[in-house]
Request: fold
Amino acid sequence: VNPFQYIHMSGMSIEQSVQTMLTGKDSVQLDGYLVSRGARGGGTLATTWKRQWRDDISTETAVGLGDGRFVSVKAQKNLERGSFAVADLQVREVHVQHRTALVLAASAAIYRNIAPHVFGMLHWSVGMQSALTSALMYDDQHTAARLEFKMGVEDTQLSASWTYPVTDSTKVKLNAQAGLHAYQLGYAIKHQITENASLGLSLACHSTDGVVVKAKFESLRQTYAVPIFLSDELLTEAVIYGTIIPLVGYFALQQLFVQPWQAAQEAQAKAERRRRNRALVARRKQEAKAAVTLMKETVERKIAQEEERHGLIILQAWYGMLTAQARTNAGDDDNEEEDSPVIDVTTPLQCMVQDSKLRLHGTAKASLVGFYDPCIDEDKQLRVVYRFQDRLHEVTIDDGDELRMPLRSHLRA
Reply:
């Protein structure tokens, strides 16, 4: 039995867009679209001229050739408090029953900032799909939500969506839509692989079109999408298979390929940064060593004074990328590895102790006397083990945090 006998490709589409700046206020965008479905195919080539007339007024003029030729003009004006209005006028060629006709369509919309992170939208359109749409949107750069109500000649519907970040690089979107003639439920997962590339997976359940799974890859301005129609009807089996199998495949791809590749790329980038900064780090290391040598007599005197009063004694202190392996390699400064991401800063910190107290401001610690940055452009921490009133204390802070010692919260259990 051929396992692929029930799989066939019903259509394919390709879309490409290129934009270039002509002047400081003018730009041109070229869009191409090709589609093949069944035994028929077609395409459209569109050119758009964008002009920024003033800081608050811009226009777009577009001309499309090929299937469905059109001419459109759109204008946008910025209003007060982050609000703006948009107007659009379009003339499009349509083919109905072997006849060609010109259709005039127009729309107007206003977007208003109602409250912090909350926007409202009112959109009115006339033409073949005349409708009045209102929407309420929330976006705080972390969570996004949208509630929309549309009254049209063909249908009236209510839709809602909610987007939430599961991790810093992965977002989940839930959406629902209900109208007079149909309803739809779905979800989507998007994972950011790199700064300019992402993977996406979505499942849509239509009451009329059935179950559709779509895989998507985006890179810069290019998008590759593969929709898979699992069923023409809304079947429970199709929903289960369309959810479990893609999710298992998605997370298997993440664990087996994407995450190892990202880790390898990150390690390679770090190694390259360290190689480029090696000479600078070596020079600053020698400067820090010279400063530590000059402060040794002062530190010995301060330790003797603090011992007499049972005051603040710095036993050990490390600065850099505090991994277990790095701390092991960062004991004695003379035995440190040349490229160690952690340095010993016990002596400089003890030199800063005044009357059994030490305070470091909330700035990068690499600029302190006796310190240097062993891993430039990477996250660093400062860990201090100290004795106060004959009791051991320990504290770890991020590089930009403030540090005050001694504190009762630093006591070792």
About this structure: The chain is about 20% helix and 50% strand. The radius of gyration is 32 Å. Residues 5 and 230 are 14 Å apart (CA to CA). Residues 236-308 form the longest helix (73 residues).
